[in-house]
Write a sequence for this structure.
């Protein structure tokens, strides 16, 4: 079956703009979580969605938001982009909520803010 | 303070050597889960193993083995007879419940290079 699909793979944006990233989970998976990976901060948890509701949230400013649709697809939005938002954004899906289940990750979206 | 510490930033070994990647975690929860993930150059994180805090049995899967010791808060990962395809960054992670819901913490990763 198809894996976790993230689009686009690469993105270049200008400081101050906003960006929306998309994640399609594995069919049947209802939980989607997002992570930011940077050389300086490593992998950090952003948030998790389950049944269209945000269940958990990491320590990120309100400029980072997301949502999940009824088909479990999720989008992540970053407004007023800053240079420090340049990162690899990874999405992962799981059968259910909570991190006690195995997670399957997508290949990520590499965002560059100039 | 770091919840998950991977003290080894980079490791290089020659093919067929054994290599152990260290992971030390910190938690006050009695119920928690530990994970190892592999991140090859393509960027996708590959799930390797999940362990719950009540199961201290060591696990072996092919050339991979994991040693979970609650007494030392460690969850080390050993690759036996390493191969070039094992070259990747390996992340250890911890999940625990908090008053804001489940939280998930990654270590900073260990970059493994297997030299042919």
């Amino acid at each position: 079956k198809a894996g976790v699909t993230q689009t686009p793979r690469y993105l270049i944006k200008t400081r101050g703009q906003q960006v929306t990233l998309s994640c399609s989970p594995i069919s049947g998976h209802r939980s989607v979580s997002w992570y930011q990976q940077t050389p300086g901060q490593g992998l950090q948890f952003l948030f998790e969605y389950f049944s269209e509701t945000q269940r958990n949230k990491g320590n990120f400013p309100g400029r980072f938001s997301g949502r999940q649709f009824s088909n479990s697809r999720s989008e992540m939005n970053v407004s007023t982009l800053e240079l420090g938002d340049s990162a690899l954004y990874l999405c992962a899906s799981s059968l259910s909520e909570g991190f006690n289940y195995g997670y399957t990750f997508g290949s990520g979206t590499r965002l560059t803010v100039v | 303070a770091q919840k998950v510490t991977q003290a080894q930033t980079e490791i290089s070994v020659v093919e067929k050597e054994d290599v152990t990647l260290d992971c030390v975690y910190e938690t006050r929860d009695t119920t928690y889960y530990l994970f190892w993930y592999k991140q090859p150059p393509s960027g996708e994180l590959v799930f390797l193993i999940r362990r719950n805090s009540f199961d201290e049995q060591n696990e072996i899967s092919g050339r991979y083995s994991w040693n979970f010791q609650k007494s030392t808060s460690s969850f080390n990962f050993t690759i036996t007879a390493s191969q070039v395809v094992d070259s990747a960054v390996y992340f250890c992670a911890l999940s625990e419940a908090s008053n804001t819901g489940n939280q998930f913490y990654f270590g900073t990763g260990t970059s493994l290079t297997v030299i042919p």
About this structure: The CA atoms of residues 31 and 111 of chain B lie 29 Å apart. The interface with chain A takes residues 33, 37, 42-47, 50, 52, 91, 93, 95, 100-109 of chain B (CB under 8 Å). The mean pLDDT of chain B is 90. The two ends of chain B are 37 Å apart (CA to CA).
